[in-house]
Amino acid sequence: MKNWVRILLILTTFLGISIYVNFRSQNILDPDSLYHIRHAWIYRTNGIFDSSFPWTQFSVIKTMGADLWYGFHVFLIPFTYISDLAVAIKLAAIFTTFFVLASIYVALKNLNIKLSGLWAIFFLFSSPTIIPRMMMVRPHPLSLGLTALIFSFFYTGPSVLVFIFSFILSWMHSSIFWFPIIAVCALVLFKRLNNQKIDVHKLIVFLAGIAAGLMARPHPLANLKLIYIQVVDLYLLKNYELAQVIGAELRSPTWESAYVQKWLFIVLITALIYLGRRIYKKEPLDVNRRIIILSSLALTAVSIT
Questions:
Q1: pTM, entire model
Q2: Counting Cβ atoms within 10 Å, is residue 65 exposed (0-12), middle (13-18) or buried (19+)?
Q3: Where are the domains of the chain?
């Protein structure tokens, strides 16, 4: 089978899966989707340089006049031409799921991981809590896919793609601009530990993309203050009380939640044992694959804690 035919088949499969999981229910999974689609509608009707949101009368967002998710709302503008915004949310959700699958596939393919398409599908269905999150019309799923692309192409690939992906991520979801920085730091660390050369040019391009995305919006300095309020102040001031209301997806897993998804952890532990044997015994991995695996495992450990 020709390569382009195989890729087309894989992408068509991703699209079919995205349509299936999103139209299994007519419900809108996340109320934040209503805010995001309406803010995009405001950009279409008032212009993309008016980042205010008229219904946040008692929020610091009104005071700052900035938009943490500016690029994401601009991206949603074409969907707002659909008169029924509930339908628009569903169609945007299909694209979101498709983008996650496609970006993970491209990231793995770029790293020469076998069966990249199947691994992307495995990720989507690996947990009953993953599926709905990858269907939400929020910038978080797109940011996850972009981080995977940044991780992959920072390790091996053209610098221009690293710049583009990092720019889009911080432009769309400015409050987690630090997330791909952690991923890149893991790569740099394990490259250093394995005596591999650090591509300083690519590192500069990556940081430039992050900075450019943060600045390419109305009121960029006010937006930076909003990021500090959301990422630092909010959690420091509210701490435990806040965790009872929002951010449940950010909590560390419990033994009870691990038991509910025990089959996934069995697969994970089996894979770790297999990798351990390859790294330390009969079939030692080449240095490139070892760096990818160790940095990925380190990121997994950080995300769990």
A1: 0.86
A2: middle
A3: 3-251
